[in-house]
Design the sequence.
């Protein structure tokens, strides 16, 4: 390719979301709920209070560690799970959930 004039190309990248609203709905139907986190180089271990929370509300915290995942995908997934938890448990779960859950604020 030979270009003789300045060339401007405008493009957008769209994330391929493997975690999205449809995935959340599927996980709700199968009872495999997760609350998604993005940690650092190594995912952090769950504390005793995290384990109590997960058992009480029948879900798992899922930390992507240092994997790059589009935040809008994680928020879409988590917001569907938030709606389910609110409908099932009221707002009580919000008092003890980890503060680093993406999209909670």
Sequence:
């Amino acid at each position: 390719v030979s270009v003789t004039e300045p060339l401007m190309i405008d493009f957008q990248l769209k994330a391929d979301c493997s975690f999205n609203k449809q995935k959340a709905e599927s996980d709700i139907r199968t009872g495999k709920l997760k609350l998604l986190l993005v940690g650092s180089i190594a995912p952090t271990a769950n504390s005793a209070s995290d384990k109590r929370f997960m058992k009480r509300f029948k879900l798992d915290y899922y930390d992507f560690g240092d994997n790059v995942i589009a935040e809008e995908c994680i928020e879409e997934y988590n917001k569907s799970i938030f709606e389910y938890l609110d409908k099932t448990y009221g707002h009580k779960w919000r008092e003890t959930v980890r503060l680093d859950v993406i999209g909670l604020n």
